[in-house]
Amino acid sequence: MQWKHRTPGPPARLDATPPLRAGREPWAALDLLWTRRLHRGADYRVLVLLLAVVSRLGNGVLWYAGMAVLPLVAGPRGWACSLRMMALGLLNLTLYLLLKRWACRPRPYVACQDIHACTRALDQFSFPSGHTLHAVGFSIVLIEYFPALALVLVPFTLLIALSRVVLGLHYPSDVLAGAGIGALMAFGVLALF
């Protein structure tokens, strides 16, 4: 699972078991092991269909629709939540794009021959998971304003995170990094704005 900082270019298929850098062997081996284990879920058509739908909903349309509807159904509280979500979305998108270009980590289906993409990737690189970053961030802001939504948002966000690995698009470390960054940015936006 070798990846390094480089200028973006077209993805190239790497070996099924990429070489590991010194000092990263235990982490990288564990990351690859869990990627392969979770990707076994792709053997079940119904699970792939469910996770592909969840992943598609996490592309952004659902979040943007929520931002548009909240002011209409929740008045001033909805406006405040939507504005924070918009600010968070812009900050997250900027940081996400910078990190993707900096890391240039190949996606699992590119780096490992035994992993295949079960749905289309939105961009070329793997680190961090943008779907997870946005899902965690937006969910935290929404739950801060509307705590009852946690019953729906927490399982939905967990499914988005799981879908990214099962569908062969991310490593677990991509998802964990996305979740951590999303949470940090959400709490920052809630504290500052």
Explain the overall architecture.
It is a single chain. This protein is mainly α and 193 residues long. It has one domain (25-192): Vanadium-containing Chloroperoxidase, domain 2. The protein has helices at 25-39, 45-57, 61-103, 108-111, 130-145, 150-166, 172-192. The longest helix is centred in the middle third of the chain and has 43 residues, at 61-103. It is globular and about 50 Å long.
SSE topology:
Elements: H1 25-39, H2 45-57, H3 61-103, H4 108-111, H5 130-145, H6 150-166, H7 172-192
Helix pairs in contact: 2-6, 3-5, 3-7, 5-6, 5-7, 6-7
Membrane topology: Multi-pass membrane protein
Keywords: Cell membrane, Hydrolase, Membrane, Transmembrane, Transmembrane helix
Transmembrane segments: 46-65, 77-99, 148-169, 175-192
What overall geometry do the principal axes of the alpha carbons give?
globular
> What is the strand tally?
0
The major sheet is characterized as: none
Query: Helix amount, in percent?
Result: 55-70%
Query: Average pLDDT, to the nearest integer?
Result: 86
Transmembrane segments: 46-65, 77-99, 148-169, 175-192
Membrane topology: Multi-pass membrane protein
Pfam families: PAP2
Region (Disordered): 1-20
